[in-house]
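Quick log. Single chain, no ligands specified.
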Amino acid sequence: MTERCMDALRANGFDAMLVEKPFSRTLEEVGKISPRKAAQVPPLCRKLLNAAVDARPGLCLYFISVGLPALLVDSLLIALLRQRGIPYVLYFHGRGYRDYQAARYRPVAGIVRRTLAGALGGLVLGEGLKSDVGHHIPEERLYVLPNGIPDIRPEVCRPRNGAAVTVGFLGNLIPSKGPMTFLEMAKRVVEKDKGVRFAMAGRHVSEAYLRDLRGFVAREGLAGFVELSGPRYGTAKDRFFQEADIFVFPTAFRKETFALVNVEAMQWGLPVISSPVGAIPEVVRDGETGFIVDPADIDLLACRVLKLAGDPELRGRMGRAARQRYEDCFSLEAYGRNLKQAMDRFIRLNAASG
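-> predicted structure:
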């Protein structure tokens, strides 16, 4: 998203430069403290100060972290911006900032408060995420900017005409993302309709949890109905969506914000069933482009899948609505328009307050 943001800024005529924060090189490093990361902080401070002197920016768009160690580093860097008198807009891609009001965070609560409250404004991924930062940034200074993704390549887009209805799950195979919920739902669906197939793909981070998933498939007699594969990237990911008829992402991750994978499924014209978490209900319109279901209600989840599996007309109508919603709201064109409107608004706000 950083690269897409920079491309959109430049395409809209902004003179934009990037100061990278290259701390985590792999997913496993995210949120972890290490000597290598600590050693990068002083050079990054110098890099930011040099950019402030050389470019003399009128505004800084800052991608802010939510995990405490990274947030404290961000607070240090933002303090340097304030010292230089550079107004900044915070770009929130995570959630959990309100948690820092709790008593256990008292030693750092003031730092977090100054960092957020000192911002000219903020960009959030959905209306439902405003409350996470609204205690420090007034609502009129928060702008909703949904993520956008590139469109699929025309040469890989073809109609699905498989005999069996295929239900897909794609995501990291960790408990909070709902893979076991997906399998429990699959068991209930198969009990009522043995014509439905299930495809689960994703990168596992725990061999023990992967064994649990495979054990459930074997124990419940789902081997002929569920395909449990590894991660899918590039053309393999294209084929995954191309071969699916319904997409289910029953995440229960407490800090889920946007679930970009749902947008990817909508891009392929798939009806989506997902969770009432973060901005997901603003992406997936319940009853129009799919269904919003509490992941704890596995019976209702299975009921929604059975409804779509048994009604090709409904499946097609919701899939077309999902594709149209992607084009209108979550394409790169839509992202570029929204980002320009947001930046124009903050530039006017900065001029008025200056």
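The chain has two domains: 2-148+332-353, 154-330.
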